[in-house]
Design brief:
three-stranded parallel β-sheet; about 650 residues; 22 strands; nine-stranded mixed β-sheet; single chain; about 15% strand; alpha/beta
Length: about 650
């Protein structure tokens, strides 16, 4: 492999700009993450995309907001615009756990050090830039911008907040995956169109002032939702907004959304169509070094990079539509799959990196087993408004064949330098159960399951049934726990047949909307009866732009406007979560008292039988860990990484 030069990365300093022979820049990006030049890191993707369009691009990673703010002026003024993102995760999730306590590590910073990313980073960066460079447009994007594009509940401040365009003072917001809108924005700017006149690009949002005329677009229909001020006064109106927002975000022919914010009007333009195979291939085929910038060489490893450096992302989007998950709000529900050829090119690039040991950590995506799945008849998808393609049942128009995925795994493994490829992304186990996935050939499902179990996991297969209560699962948009039982039966048969001795590790959530204490007691009893001593557990964390969060704040389901009870106090949350750890001595007296109080002696007999029982755990050696206080929402779960230090900056 050719030795890399400093100029192979996007420049981050004036010195690096000069190395490239540039005097000025066209676009300067600001990010809450350290700069890793890898297709999994959004700022790198956007930087490389703009570079491919002939622009001179620099990136300022994790600018210091606690000094004289020199990071915001050191590269000068860009010709076109500043781009701002809080990073690959919402900064509030990066900075705080489910109990609103400061985390002691940041996976997107060298060494996992904290103190390098401010709360509400996009807003902080944007406001500083507008103060320093008032005449230069600021464009915000990334997951923080996507999830906060409209009136939203902010769990950490416990209040409704307006669109991030209002709080950040930015000029435009690009929501979702940004390649398509940015291409069009740059095309118009290079054509000479003023930035403030660019207001009809798909997948963008702007704030119109009182006297601004509403831009015309004959191809779009419009819909107006309750104003921010109305939402502040009426929780039911706020809840009703979300149905419109979610449906329009996931339609192929969406309406333009308007919302009044004081004397201004938020205008959210419809999303772009799903990226074609050629478009997504082009994004992944950009000349990434796949490495952190050399400036971090002496600061220690970046944990998030260490986890994904030998992973391959094969698609974007998720049609699950889970009520607690933000993936579809950012990436959409329709799957954009890469070609096998593009994936294999990336595999070859990784395999030829100097430190490659023969193991690929993940061949996956938002969900591991949705590759190349789409509607059989496109015209049916064109009219669809359902937020999920598989809840409450799998759509009869959805092609759920797993054969392309099985073939892809085998093609990857045929590379001479690949010893083993793992599936680290979450697998939708329900889609591997013929009783649920009636569209698929049972033999194909068995072939995929066997392929994964025999060749692509190391000792443990992690899946996410999330709960055992059917009412809770229905609200989550997850299938009945019955299908987890059926999957476990198939898993056990293959385990025995192949003499694998693999362990099944399920994820579960406590204190989700609609979940009661009895539901958690049932969960504890049923999973104990199945032989599990749970270890992958967390408490529900409200994040913007999810059904569950709307219910948590408002008390109403946005689709039915019926009341839904949600545990909100610390006492309620802790009580629900304790049932995960029924086997701990300190919880036994409390469990006995609680179940006697609610009249569930039947569950008490299961969890705490009076006679000593011989109980074989379906788990590895060692205690299960309570991750409640350090929980990360489902859509941003990552493998645990060891950190060398917990230094704070500034």
């Amino acid at each position: 492999m050719q030795e890399l030069k400093l100029s192979d990365w996007l420049p981050t300093t004036n010195k690096e700009v000069k190395i490239r022979g540039w005097e000025t820049l066209d676009v300067i990006l600001f990010s809450g993450d350290a700069y890793v030049d890898h297709p999994t890191f959004g700022p790198a993707v956007i930087g490389r995309l703009l570079e491919s369009m002939g622009l001179r691009v620099a990136i300022v990673p994790q600018p210091n907001v606690n000094d004289n703010l020199q990071d915001f002026v050191k590269l000068g003024k860009p010709r076109l615009f500043f781009g701002v993102t809080g990073g690959c995760m919402d900064p509030m999730i990066s900075n705080y756990n489910a109990n609103k306590k400061r985390r002691d590590k940041d996976a997107y910073t060298p060494n996992g050090d904290i103190g390098f990313r401010p709360d509400y980073a996009s807003t902080v960066y944007s406001k500083i830039l507008k103060e320093k460079w008032p005449d230069t447009p600021v464009l915000i994007g990334g997951i923080e911008g996507s999830l906060r594009r409209v009136t939203h509940y902010d769990y950490w401040s416990d209040q409704l907040m307006p669109t991030i365009l209002e709080t950040s003072k930015a000029d435009m917001l690009v929501y979702g995956m940004g390649e398509q809108p940015l291409r069009e924005i740059v095309r118009l700017l290079e054509k000479g169109v003023p930035f403030n006149s660019i207001n009809t690009v798909n997948q963008t949002a702007v704030l119109l002032h009182k006297d601004d005329k509403i831009p015309k677009n004959s191809n779009w229909e419009d819909v107006e939702i309750a104003s921010h001020e109305v939402c502040l006064k009426d929780k039911k109106k706020y809840a009703s907004n979300f149905k419109v927002i979610e449906q329009e975000s996931n339609k192929l022919a969406a309406r333009r959304i308007f919302q009044k914010v004081g004397e201004k009007t938020l205008m959210i333009n419809p999303p772009y169509p799903t990226m074609t195979e050629a478009e997504i291939d082009a994004s992944f085929d950009l000349p990434y070094t796949r490495l952190p910038h050399p400036k971090y060489n002496k600061r220690g490893p970046i944990p998030a990079y260490e986890m994904i450096k030998t992973s391959i992302n094969i698609h974007r989007g998720c049609f699950g539509g889970c009520s607690f998950c933000t993936i579809s709000a950012h990436q959409g529900k329709f799957i954009a799959s890469r070609s096998k050829e593009s994936i294999l090119r990336e595999v070859d690039k990784v395999a030829n990196m100097p430190d490659f040991k023969g193991y690929l950590s993940d061949i996956g995506g938002p969900s591991a087993n949705m590759y190349q799945m789409k509607g059989k008849v496109q015209s049916i998808c064109d009219k669809c408004v359902a937020p999920s393609c598989i809840s409450p049942v799998i759509c009869s128009n959805l092609d759920t064949s797993h054969k392309p995925l099985t073939d892809l795994y085998q093609a990857v493994d045929s590379h001479p330098k690949v010893k083993k490829s793992f599936i680290g992304s979450g697998i939708r186990h329900d889609m591997l159960v013929p009783e649920f996935n009636k569209n698929a050939d049972p033999k194909e499902l068995d072939a995929y399951t066997e392929e994964v179990m025999t060749k692509h996991v190391s000792g443990r297969l992690k899946v996410a049934p999330e709960h055992t209560s059917d009412p809770v699962l229905k609200l989550m948009r997850k299938p009945s726990f019955t299908y987890f039982h059926k999957f476990k039966e198939r898993f056990d048969k293959i385990n025995i047949k192949k003499n694998l001795k693999l362990q099944l590790i399920p994820y579960f959530i406590s204190n989700h909307p609609a979940c009661e204490v009895e539901d958690m007691a049932n969960l504890a009893a049923e999973t104990k009866d199945m032989g599990f001593q749970l270890e992958q557990v967390q408490g529900f964390t409200p994040t913007p732009m999810t059904v569950a969060t709307v219910i948590y704040y408002s008390g109403y389901h946005p689709y039915t406007l019926k009341k839904v009870n949600t545990p909100k106090t610390r006492k309620e949350k802790d009580e629900q979560h304790r049932f995960f750890f029924w086997y701990k001595d300190e919880n036994k007296a409390w469990i006995k008292k609680t179940l006697n109080r609610v009249g569930r002696q039947d569950l008490l007999k299961v969890l705490l039988p009076e006679k000593t029982e011989k109980w074989r755990k379906n788990k590895p050696n060692g205690e299960a860990k309570d991750t409640f206080n350090d929980a990360v929402p489902f859509n941003q779960r990552k493998q645990k990484v060891k950190y060398k230090s917990k230094k704070k900056r500034r």
